[in-house]
Give the backbone structure.
Amino acid sequence: MTDFRIGHGYDVHRLVPDRKLILGGVTIPYDLGLLGHSDADVLTHAVMDALIGAMGLGDIGKHFPDSDERYRGIDSLKLAERVAVLLRENGFTVSNIDATVVAQSPKLAPYLPQMKENLATVFSIPAQRVNVKATTEEHLGFTGSGEGIAAHAVCLISK
């Protein structure tokens, strides 16, 4: 019998001046970026959290704590590569990933295909098994007011 597991991940970071806006490993031209210990890539963080959770191994804070200087400014796709190693070491493969970025602006549609490709590459799965979409919150809440960006991700893994 195949061991299927579902994971859910969520991340949020504040938008601030003088930082790059990086989502799914893509640098997006914008006058604000996300504040965080690493590159603050909320999309990649949500995906990592979903995968780590599906394995039952805690969360990204446990594996990559913001108190550890090794992770200051690190490219989140590099952290995702370590999650891919955890998956292999624990005998799991990724069946699919579905993620949503919640941002009032900037418009993300032109960048979604590259985000999808980046995540598929890191987790060694066909791009057709990764879905990345974006939505606004109609000017409601902290994402709607432009204070931050959030991301949700779900995944299915199997052994």
Observations:
- Helices lie at 42-55, 60-63, 76-89, 112-122, 141-144.
- The two ends are 9 Å apart (CA to CA).
